[in-house]
């Protein structure tokens, strides 16, 4: 009797769930509120709130409760696209030649060595497991280079650390993320050609990739000019919000329609905006102010996307372990090598790599970018592999990386 | 050569327009452009947004694909709820208590004045059957507050006039639902002669109002619970937007009024003053692009084609004029009886012209009721066209009148 009552209760609950899942707006709302509550619990444990949003996505998504549809992505794809475009513009605005010029060459050498070491180690290690295809491995390697500026800043503030180690850490984090996005964009431009090559040879593929990359950058520069022209005269914040968002959306749509990379275009326009003399800071500031719920929704949607359909659990574990360990090795060795090559202090050589372990939103953004870009729609295996591995390893790197980074910062800042 | 250009344009449209991001971008950009021009011409920017939507929409330039309608409707739902919450946070209970009696008087006069005038005018013309005229008269009482509220916030107006205006919005919404309930009940008794339909339909609409209030209270309490005083403004922003989305979706799923629910939620949130301020600050960061998209999307639904059919145009014109006369004279009379200020008597009615959201909802309800369909296709399609024509005219003219009313109404007060 009770069994039957429980059964009918379950059916009723399921019916209720089906009424709810038809509503994408409800999905966003649940993800935002649920993610926020989880995020607050996480930050009480000293973990980043972003993990809470991803966790809420996992719990509410098809993997556990199924309240949020698995094809929500189609409905909410707009949010992801807009969020990625905004992230690209905001990151792009960090690439200011002024900043780069002010930095010494040693910094640039160290950063590039670290980026390349991570890319090589991670993609080769993943490929060697035999479970990941070359394009997916390369993309994951590029994503692995990303760090977590927000976590780093929070840790340093918390430790009240200062000194030349911290200065190096800050400039290297900003540079590293910009470099990582660049590396990823280039990889992403070439990867589909590599897979869908068909009859055309390698030179043709390289040429078309190069053409697409430069067309994307040109589009971004053009839009950057238009944005800065359009907002130059407007005094009111409202106008900047509206026109900034409008042009970012249009740029993404155009890039998607003509097979260009919205990411490279966003980076280019952000960089252009940051390097014009007057008032351009206002645009990126306005876009950033609007963004928090967009980012939050974006992480939660990402959580609903984690799936390892068709992959055995041991394979998943193997891939994840390889990704995390090879990334740590790449960061550590790359930092040591780069510091040695540019004759840095031994403390920098020893601790900088460990301080850079946390991995954050940029990585998630890059992974989700694949999903919103049309060329990768025909390559679902690559996309779902990259998204799932990135999300899980970001969680691990935040959980384990934050304490390690705290230790390394406190040691290194004795410099 | 022109052939070539138009072909290129068509190919471009074909490639780009099915993308939701493009729709969003082009509506924002077009809205911004026409909105700026409109402001230079002294017309509220909202009219520019709506015009941009109409020009870009599937019925004209086709830059916004008609397949995207459903996706864009989500934006509309969220925008209405955000507006409702913002109005709700402005409702000041003690002040409302002071003006409450006057407000009820004004609303009663205004609703019945509009209903009777429109009904009398349509009945006098005699093209439509009496029942259809009655349905139209009930729909005519609906007012859409979004445009007016956006104008108030843009002008940063405040004072007695604005209190009356904000007080009138929920009363008008609830009163309109009740009036419609009465008409629907009377009407279904008329056509189907089924007994017991009158109390049934009144119960149905009362649960709609009560349910909306309960939903709003729950949402408001959730925000209060989540966002305590120590939270950063970003997290208040995230939580309140999340709750607003949930509320909108639930209201849609259970056929409740998002406007009433949102206003209740706003009022509950605003009982704590700091929290109220934080929520407003968060939601207002989002509101400029949200409003622009909202009004542009509303514009994409306007169809100049409704002007094609002569009897409809004649009926529509009568409906629009009678509605405007009813709203204005009703408010005037009500304010006179209640002894309100001159500014309120003269200008409050002008701010009540916009006519979209709820009227379209009522229209859908009417279309789905069997009693209405029993009147025959010719009549029903005429009723629908008349309402759409009124929405068209009032969407474009209403904001202009509202801006005039808000600035005049508030300044009369200041000069006193």
Protein traits:
heterodimer, A: about 425 residues, about 0% strand, globular, B: about 425 residues, mainly alpha
Q: Topology of this structure?
A:
The complex is a heterodimer of chains A (415) and B (416).
Chain A (H helix, E strand, L loop, with lengths): L1 H20 L2 H21 L4 H12 L11 H21 L4 H6 L2 H24 L5 H11 L4 H11 L4 H32 L6 H31 L4 H21 L4 H14 L4 H11 L1 H13 L8 H29 L4 H10 L5 H12 L7 H33 L3
Helix pairs in contact in A: 2-3, 2-14, 3-14, 4-11, 4-12, 4-14, 4-17, 6-7, 6-9, 6-15, 7-9, 7-18, 8-9, 8-18, 9-10, 10-11, 10-12, 11-12, 11-13, 12-13, 15-16, 15-18, 16-18, 17-18
Chain B lengths: L1 H15 L3 H21 L4 H12 L12 H22 L2 H33 L4 H11 L5 H10 L4 H33 L4 H30 L6 H21 L4 H13 L2 H28 L9 H29 L3 H6 L9 H12 L1 H4 L3 H39 L1
Helix pairs in contact in B: 2-3, 2-12, 3-12, 3-17, 4-10, 4-11, 4-12, 5-6, 5-8, 5-13, 6-8, 6-17, 7-17, 8-9, 9-10, 9-11, 10-12, 13-17, 15-17
What kind of oligomer do you see? Answer: heterodimer
Q: How many strand elements of chain A?
A: 0
Classification by helices and strands of chain A: mainly alpha
Gross geometry of chain B: globular
Count of discrete alpha- or pi-helical segments spanning 4 or more residues of chain B: 17
Radius of gyration of chain A: 22 Å
Give the SSE order of chain B as H and E letters.
HHHHHHHHHHHHHHHHH
> In total, how many beta strands of chain B?
0
Q: How much is the radius of gyration of chain B in Å?
A: 21 Å
Structural class of chain B: mainly alpha
Mean pLDDT of chain B: 79
- The amount of beta strand of chain B, in percent, is under 5%
Q: Tell me roughly what share of residues is in helical segments of chain B.
A: over 70%
Considering residues with a beta carbon less than 8 A from a beta carbon on another chain, report the largest interface and each chain's count: A-B, 48 and 44 residues
User: Uncertain spans of chain B, ≥5 residues at pLDDT below 50?
Assistant: 191-196
Mean pLDDT of chain A: 77
Indicate the low-confidence ranges of chain A by residue numbers: none
Instruction: Report the order of strands and helices of chain A.
Output: HHHHHHHHHHHHHHHHHH
Q: Counting H and I runs of at least 4 residues, what is the number of helices of chain A?
A: 18
């Amino acid at each position: 009797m009770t069994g039957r009552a429980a059964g009918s209760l379950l059916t009723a609950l399921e019916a209720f769930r089906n009424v709810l899942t038809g509503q994408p707006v409800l999905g966003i709302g649940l993800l935002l509120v649920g993610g926020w509550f989880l995020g607050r619990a996480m930050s009480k444990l000293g973990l980043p709130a972003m993990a809470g949003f991803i966790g809420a996505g996992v719990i509410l998504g098809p993997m556990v409760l199924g309240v949020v549809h698995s094809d929500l992505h189609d409905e909410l794809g707009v949010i992801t696209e807009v969020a990625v475009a905004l992230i690209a513009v905001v990151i792009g605005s960090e690439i200011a030649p002024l900043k780069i010029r002010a930095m010494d060459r040693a910094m640039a050498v160290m950063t590039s060595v670290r980026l390349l070491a991570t890319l090589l180690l991670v993609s080769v290690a993943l490929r060697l497991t035999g479970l990941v295809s070359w394009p997916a491995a390369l993309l994951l390697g590029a994503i692995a280079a990303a760090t977590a500026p927000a976590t780093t800043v929070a840790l340093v503030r918390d430790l009240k650390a200062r000194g030349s180690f911290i200065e190096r850490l800050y400039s290297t984090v900003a540079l590293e993320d910009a470099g990582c996005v660049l590396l990823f964009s280039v990889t992403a431009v070439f990867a589909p050609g590599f897979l869908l090559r068909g009859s055309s040879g390698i030179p043709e593929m390289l040429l078309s990739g190069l053409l697409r990359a430069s067309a994307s950058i040109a589009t971004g520069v053009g839009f950057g000019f238009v944005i800065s022209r359009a907002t130059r005269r407007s005094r009111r914040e409202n106008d900047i919000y509206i026109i900034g968002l409008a042009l970012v959306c249009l740029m993404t749509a155009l890039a998607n329609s003509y097979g260009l990379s919205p990411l490279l275009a966003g980076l280019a326009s952000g960089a252009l905006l940051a390097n014009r003399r007057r008032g351009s800071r206002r645009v990126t500031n306005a876009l950033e102010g609007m963004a928090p719920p967009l980012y939050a929704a974006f992480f939660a949607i990402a959580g609903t996307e984690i799936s390892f359909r068709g992959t055995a659990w041991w394979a998943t574990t193997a891939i994840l372990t390889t990704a995390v360990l090879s990334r740590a090795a790449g960061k550590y060795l790359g930092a040591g090598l780069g510091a040695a090559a540019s004759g840095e202090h031994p403390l920098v050589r020893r601790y900088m790599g460990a301080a850079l372990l946390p991995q954050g939103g940029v990585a998630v953004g890059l992974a989700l970018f694949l999903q919103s870009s049309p060329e990768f729609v025909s390559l679902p295996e690559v996309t779902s592999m990259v998204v799932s591995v990135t999300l899980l390893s970001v969680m691990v790197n935040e959980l384990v990386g934050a304490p390690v980074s705290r230790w390394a910062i406190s040691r290194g800042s004795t410099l | 050569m022109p052939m070539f250009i138009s072909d290129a344009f068509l190919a471009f449209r074909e490639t780009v327009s099915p993308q939701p991001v493009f729709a969003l971008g082009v509506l924002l950009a077009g809205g911004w452009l026409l909105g700026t021009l409109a402001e230079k011409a002294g017309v509220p920017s909202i009219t520019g947004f709506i015009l941009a939507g109409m020009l870009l929409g599937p019925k004209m330039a086709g830059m916004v694909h008609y397949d995207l309608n459903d996706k864009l409707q989500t934006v509309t739902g969220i925008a209405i709820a955000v507006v409702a919450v913002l109005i709700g946070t402005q409702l000041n209970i003690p002040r409302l208590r002071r003006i409450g009696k006057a407000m009820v008087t004004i609303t009663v006069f205004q609703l019945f004045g509009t209903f009777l005038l429109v009904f009398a005018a349509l009945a006098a013309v005699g093209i439509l059957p009496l029942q259809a005229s009655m349905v139209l008269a009930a729909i005519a009482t609906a007012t859409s507050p979004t445009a007016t509220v956006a104008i108030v916030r843009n002008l940063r107006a405040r004072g007695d006039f604005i209190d009356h205006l904000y007080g009138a919005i929920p009363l008008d919404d609830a009163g309109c639902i009740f009036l419609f309930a009465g008409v629907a009940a009377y009407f279904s008794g008329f056509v189907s002669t089924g007994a017991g339909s009158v109390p049934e339909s009144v119960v149905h609409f009362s649960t709609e109002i009560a349910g909306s209030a309960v939903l709003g209270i729950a949402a408001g309490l959730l925000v209060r619970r989540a966002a305590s005083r120590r939270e950063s403004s970003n997290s208040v922003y995230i939580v309140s937007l999340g709750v607003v989305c949930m509320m909108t979706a639930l209201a849609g799923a259970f056929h409740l009024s998002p406007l009433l629910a949102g206003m209740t939620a706003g009022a509950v949130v605003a009982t704590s003053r700091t929290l109220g301020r934080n929520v407003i600050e968060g939601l207002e960061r989002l509101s400029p692009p949200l409003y622009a998209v909202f009004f542009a999307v509303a514009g994409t639904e306007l169809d100049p084609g409704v002007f094609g059919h002569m009897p409809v145009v004649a009926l529509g014109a009568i409906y629009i004029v009678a509605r405007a006369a009813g709203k204005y004279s009703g408010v005037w009379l009500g304010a006179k009886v209640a002894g309100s200020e001159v500014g309120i008597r003269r200008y409050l009615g002008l701010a009540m012209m916009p006519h979209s959201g709820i009227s379209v909802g009522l229209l859908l309800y009417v279309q789905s009721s069997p009693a209405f369909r029993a009147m025959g296709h010719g009549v029903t399609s005429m009723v629908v066209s008349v309402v759409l024509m009124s929405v068209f005219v009032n969407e474009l003219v209403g904001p202009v009148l509202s801006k005039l009313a808000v600035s005049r109404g508030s300044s009369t007060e200041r000069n006193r």
